[in-house]
Specification:
Length: 135
């Protein structure tokens, strides 16, 4: 059974991909802590509404079907400068290591949550199929 065809696993994979991208951006921010004039970056948040709209688009199988008014799909995350950094250093650098470390810890925690959710759902499917739910 291919789990990537199930909407729940697609949503979990999408969130994990977004968290991976965010961790990469945070790592770049920390790496540029001493770069003069560098501004901290972050990626656009992945909202629940975006996840639903990407999954629940109606499909037209006939020319007589109505076309969806909202045909916009949630695309890849966009990287943008952070709106309000905590402070600006004398070298005009907007990266605050403490803030970036907090974001990194939150991202890691969210990633672990998605991983646990994935594992629990695989275990539930195995149990439902009679293949044993033990990990």
């Amino acid at each position: 059974m291919d789990l990537s065809n199930l909407d729940l696993f697609k949503a979990i994979g999408r969130k994990m991909g977004w968290l991976t991208q965010r961790e990469n951006v945070i790592a770049q921010n920390i790496a540029n802590t001493d770069t003069p004039g560098f501004r901290a970056l972050d990626i656009a948040p992945l909202t629940f509404k975006d996840t639903l709209s990407a999954k629940l688009q109606p499909t037209t199988t006939s020319a007589k079907h109505l076309v969806s008014a909202s045909s916009g799909k949630a695309g890849d995350s966009k990287v943008s400068a952070e709106k309000k950094p905590w402070e600006i250093s004398p070298s005009n650098n907007g990266v605050v290591v403490e803030e970036q470390m907090m974001k990194s810890a939150n991202t890691a925690s969210d990633y672990q949550l998605m991983l646990n959710l994935y594992k629990k759902n695989v275990t539930m499917l195995r149990t439902a199929l009679g293949r044993g739910g033990g990990v």
